[in-house]
User: Fold this.
Amino acid sequence: PSSGLQLSTPIPGYQMNGLQIVNFQHFIGGIGDDVFLIKEVAGDFHYDGAAGLNTLDLNHYLGNAGVIADLNVGSIIENDGSNRRFNFENISKFILTHQNDFLIADE
Assistant:
């Protein structure tokens, strides 16, 4: 199997492991299998897995209310009434939070 990008995206301007992510909104994976690790639903992010079998992982999500994952329109909305969201495309696998999440999808 090919290896791809592993990316952890905290809120803009947040520093993690010496790497600071500032003013980024659109993340595009490579030709391999990519994993997007999401800790917060903040900002107006867009995750595009591109080629490969890509994963959107919210297992380390820091919120208390869970999320609404709508696979039909490609969005994740924080389920706390704040209307914070991000969009995604070309994602094959979803790992949701440990909260009360909702998954919306066609059969």
Q: What stands out?
A: The chain is about 0% helix and 40% strand. The CA atoms of residues 56 and 94 lie 5 Å apart.
